[in-house]
Amino acid sequence: MGMKPSIGVLVAAAVAGCYVPGPAPSNALRVTGGMQWADVSLVPHNFIDRPWAPFFGPYRVLIDEERIHYCAVDAMTYQIEVDRKRVFPCAWRAIQP
Prior knowledge:
By secondary structure, the protein is an alpha+beta fold. The protein is 22% helix and 27% strand.
């Protein structure tokens, strides 16, 4: 009889797989720009936020003033925040190399 992994071990492995090295970003950074693609299949891997990425369709990200973090957003938020260039609370993620 084989060993069954416990739920705790599976959860720990999933969390460890999501770790992104680098400084933890604040939940509110200043927006200085953004990028958008007509389809998520065209997005470079370093800007994909896997849990929130759609299977198809447009994809938009805001970029912080240091240009080291991005935040995936919907169309309305993108239009508003990319022009305002203000501090925006979001689940900022480090841009992967």
